[in-house]
Design a protein that fits this description.
Structural class: alpha/beta
Radius of gyration: 20 Å
Largest sheet: 7 strands, mixed
Bound molecules: pyridoxal-5'-phosphate
Shape: globular
Oligomer: single chain
Helix content: 25-40%
Strand order of the largest sheet: 2-8-7-6-5-3-4
Order of helices and strands: EHHEHEHEHEHEHEEHHHEHEEEH
Length: 348
Amino acid sequence: MSAPITKPDTRTPACPVSYALSTNENPYRPLRSVRRAVRAESGRLNRYPDPSCAELTARLAERFHVPAEHIVVGPGSIGVVQQLLRARASAGEEVVYAWRSFEGYPIITQIAGARSVPVPLAHPEVHDLDAMAGAITNHTRLVFVCNPNNPTGTVLRRTALRRFLDRVPPDVPVVLDEAYREFVRDPDTPDGVELYGDYPNLVVLRTFSKAYGLAGLRVGFAIAHESIAAAMGSYTVPFGVTALAQAAAIASLHAESELLDRVEALVEERRRVLNGLRDIGCPVPGSEANFLWLPLGEQTVEFATACGGEGLIVRPYPGEGVRITIGDPASNDRVLRVAAEYFSSSRP
Ligand SMILES: *Cc1c(COP(=O)(O)O)cnc(C)c1O
């Protein structure tokens, strides 16, 4: 893959020559065309943005072949789903999700005043869909399904997910969080946009933060049937998505093939790091996202500290495992080197 990856930003005074592999960011700098769109918009910062995100919504409707009324744009996908929680859940009601999964779920559930019902992952680190269906009660107002799952990178396949959706009462929305959809290469992993036509309660969540590399601008969107989309839309924070974010997202859709080349290069790197880690005896589950999960249990903090000593900022979940974002080749090389040293010395 020829797409060049830029060097790590060594000018940031807080972290000299370190690689941030802890938040699943895209290691590529924004495309020139995207920066140009943002710069052009910056001359109009005295003006409010379009509160309806009309142009971006129209472009997304074209891109995904869905009616514009089915799209809700918001300040990050976490912002969009917060609108849904405000519309749906209030004090004492329940939100079901797998655990461990994305840390945003308990936070926004708590902000809505609702109660979290976390359902432990089944072995090996996948959603336990039977247990999740069993956890749905009359008080359940929302279910999250994270596919691929953050932080484990594992996926639910089409048949299993359909069987689950068939069991969920039709008045309970299921949010299918596909923040990493563009990194999926497994052909049996369903695409939520194809699935939602069959399930009026399915809400597909997508973001410009990861594959499209716009985490700093805060823009994401949901695709859902009109009644749910309209409910979400009525809880929009006025002017919540900046004009810079809208312009950058539109420019990114124009440059999509260039951006997806970068995603392909990251998928290649994911393969290389995964194989490298397995070669040295590290039991890494397959990942369909832009990160890998090292289920190190009690060694988690020790390994994360070893990484930190070599300038690699990774994400430890003490007692469970370490999540490492796939970065540029230099940082990935360093991950492999640190892991090789660590595992050769921690083995008898
Ligand atoms: C990163 C991430 C998000 C957050 O996306 P934003 O659009 O930046 O808010 C949502 N869900 C999952 C699972 C994520 O990992």
